[in-house]
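Suppose you are handed a protein chain with no further information: no name, no annotation, nothing but its sequence. What can you learn? This example shows the usual starting point.
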Amino acid sequence: MKNKKKFYYIGCFFALLGFYVLLQIKYINDEWFATDELDIMVIGKGIAQGQFLYKDAPSQHMPFSYYISAFFYKLGAVSVTEQRIAFYIFIAFFWTLIAFLYSDIMDKKILFLYPIIHCCMIQNYAMGTTILSEHLAGCGAIILLLEFLRFIKKRDLNIKSCIMISISIVLTFGTIFVAIYPVFFIGIGVLALELKWKRENKYKIKEWIVPFFKKYIKLIIIVSVPWLLLFGYYIVTDTFDDFILGAYKINREVYPKYNGGLGNNIFSAFLQPLDQLSSFFVNGFQFSTWNYALVLQWIFIICCLIFMVKFFKENGIGIGCITLMYIFSLGLRGIFNFHGTACVEVLSFMVSYILISYGYKSRGKFNRLKLSIQSVWIMIFVIILSGYFQNISHFASLNFSEKKTYQTDLIQAITDRDEAIWITTFDNIDSMLADRPVVGAEAATPWMWEGKGKKQFKHFKKSAPRVAIFVEEHECWGHKLTDYAPQVIKFIKKNYTLMPDTAYVYVRNDYYEEAFQKMNESKEE
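A reasonable first move is to predict its three-dimensional structure. Written in structure tokens, the prediction is:
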């Protein structure tokens, strides 16, 4: 009997996993995000082929998205399509795991429904369905929130919770630097609860301080393990300084010069969600501009407000404010945009909670009313789902192959399988299609050039790659390559030659004749 029940749960797990994967497959042919999305995949590919993150493969982002992508590459996910499918499975696994692990503190219907609502929303803003670190952070954010709710209810912290919290921090702060804020607020909330409970029970400090540290030392150890392993790896490979420079210093000291000051201090970041919300409410009351996406946003905001009112009533002002700041801090780089996808996932959970709690569970109670809560629930649910199903024809036109361009075929013909190419543009499409790792990408953005590239260029020139992707008119956020990195242009013009019939594929002068011959041979084939 126990075996039958075990097989039943395993079957349900994989059935739900398959459903969530299928839910995302509709987005497989959506437009690629040539910068942020392909940055993860191209650098992940480079790591899988032996490059060291931050040293050989420059980045200003946290590391774990790249290592996950590298793992998928090792498993055979080489193309964008294959990488997307691998990430769909990865995300679906966590959605399914959440549904099974947290059904003891949350209604299963809520946990089942929120990924569906999430998918309905992300397709309604630009690049929302592309694979970004924010998607991984969304899974971690839900886990962290549910662990906080579990802690409020059970006042305990077992090994399973410690492991899940550790995973959630890897998925949030380990992929997005500013995700340290929501992690911080949850930590403050836990500490506040502990102090409140001890005061209610009139414990003296001597009576609870030792048990308190014993209780949380296991959490500290388990949370520290992946980070100690990561830092140990960086120290052994002599890349720790590169990590600090790329993931921290450039973000705090250089990047703010180019993005309006975001990140230059710990308080300025909180202006972004306020700006987003004020813009939302200003535009939201202009009914002439309403569309489906705006209606959906209103549903999300209203459900979030209802959820928070209920949460404040049940848990008090202190914990309510902590939870509100948790949600708020997830939107530090926006809410209903691709940078806000982690926030959108938490909002989707709240929408699911409200629909199930005040809609589904109320069925039959108001059947004599002409406009019952039950009918309202059905109407809102239909509105949410309609966005997904209005593009359901995407399933009929799914294409799992990727058409290469002349440039990418040429790059493959004139380079070896694992040979890196030099990329000076903020675009990873050609390197991804050609299945080649990249180097020298610091020149692609002014902040990476200022933070690292300018200092390394002297050494880089001594071993410059045989092939480069170069556009002299390249511009990033209004900053021209000719202005911020003129030495790159001068070096390429002197030492490289443009290949025939291409717009931006350059070959080092000492390799040009051989490359030209390989190009002709590939044409004959």
